[in-house]
Structures are given as C-alpha cells and as structure tokens.
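User: I'll paste a sequence; please echo it back and then give the predicted structure.

Assistant: Echoing your sequence first, then the prediction.
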Amino acid sequence: ISTAQNDFKKIAANFINISGMSDYDAAQLISSSNTDILVDLSGFTKKSRSMLAAYKPARVHISWLGFAGTMGYFNSSPLYDHILADRYLIPEASKKYYAENVIYHPNCYQPNIEKRAKLFPVDRKSYGFSDKLFIYASFGQSIKITEAQFTLWLKILKNTSNSILWLLESNDICMKNLLAYAEKNEVDPLRICFAKKVSLEEHINRHQIIDLFLDTYPYNAHTSTSDAIWAQCPVLTKSGPTFASRVAGSILTEIGCPELIVESDEAYYEEAIKYATDKQSLELIKNKVIRGKEGSALFKPQLFAKNLEEIYSGLISS
C-alpha cells in the first residue's frame, strides 16, 4: 500500500480498492453504492479504468486533469458527461470539439498545493554555470521535444551569445540524438546541458537559476510549468487549439502574465531573444511572475476546493 493510499484512507468516509475487480464488477459496486459523482483523474493513460464510465454507474461522470483532451464517444454517446476545464483552456469556440459538456472552474483548472518545496538560495556555480550565462531551460519530459521544437530552440541559441539550454537528463539514446542534432545544426553540443535526477526539493529550487523556461509544443509542460512558477521562473509558451497545447497558457493567465503566451514560432523566437538581450524586460517579467504567484489563486488549494465543491453541488442539484 502506497503512502498516497494511506493518506486517502485517512480522509475518506469509505475507501474501497477496486484494482482487483473487472470493470463490470466495479461498476456494479459503484452503482449499488448510490454514487453521485464519478471523477476520472486518469483518462486514456496507462493502467486507467476509464471504461467503467461506459456502464454509467453514477449519476454524473466527469473527466478531469489526467487526460489532456476529450474522452470521446462510446456507442454513439459521450463516454463522460462533463469535462472540467477553465475558460482559457477550452474557449467557448472550442467546446464543439469535445464530446463532453464543458464545465468551467472559475480559476485555472489545475489544482496546486501551497506546501511545496521551500525555496532556498541556489548558487549557479554549484551546477557548473557562470553568472554571465543566460540559462534557457525546459524540464518537461523528453518525449515532448519534437524536431520542430528543438530546431527552434537551436535557432534561439544561435542568435544569443553566452546562452545555454538546460534539459532534464533522459535516456542515453535521447541525449545522444539531441547532441548530434545540435552539432548537425551548427550549435556547439556543449551548449546543451542535462540536469541530473535529484530530490523534488532540489529540483524545484534549481529553477531559480533559470533565466527563461522554454515550453514545449504541441504538448505543453503541465505540472512542470507550475513547478517553475512556484520557483519564480518565467515560462514562455506557445498556445495552440488543443487542450494539451493550452495548459501552460492557462497557468500563465491565472497569474496575470499573458505576455508570456504566444501563438506562433516567430513570436516565440522574438520573445526568447528579447528576454536574453534586454535585462530590464527580463527583470520586469520576473517580478510580475513573483507578484502573480503570490496574488493569484494558483497556489490556494482551499479556494480551489471550495469552487470545485460548488460546481459538484450544482451538477447534483440540477
């Protein structure tokens, strides 16, 4: 039993482990318990139980958080009744592309705890970086780095002096491919650095020495974006039409930093160059991120939960 399971047991009136049950048997149990709301936090990801919803075992079925998109249809009907989002994540004009009824949380759809890693001073030299370097970084999963995205990052490096790109350490094949591609595109592979796996606390804190976090497209950094914001690190993102490409924009909208959201590669490039060459612009945006982190609802879980409870109550009463 995991620590997380034990934590849930402490706060749940009833905790029932259905991992050993078939979907049908689990659905029968849920139905016999007169469950009002069934929330799927995984969607179509590994080891999920999303097809339970096909049996309609609860009064209301909601897809939220774990899957960045619609769950589609099953037997000509939406698999889930609702998808929880926010107004940046799924604009009104995009609702037609979702099988589910879109319900809007008044703040960013992503819940974030307030008791994250405590920030402490970090010395660049402890990571082998000089104070004169401009550090671009992207700490999302390497699977999100497309050829087009990496090419754009290399273009940014080519046109900024004293800059590096700091990525998360990945498997050997991936790292070798990235370095070889950089060299092929006339960028010194030494300018591509890899951050080793460390504790969560250290990982969050090392964001503080990053000058600008470069987001990925078409699949944004999701949790990694909120990690960066917690460490007061600006995140530059490109938003597109899909759920997965709008999460970082949702977070930045919540903290009041829309200037860090662009909609084209050209604008992404121009902004990345601007912050590396204009110290005043960088200082202003860093200060704005700090104010947004402290003044927004992003890291206020009690407020998030209160608003979520009101949404749930409204769905049941209707």
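The CA atoms of residues 256 and 292 lie 6 Å apart. The chain has two domains: 3-109+300-317, 124-295.
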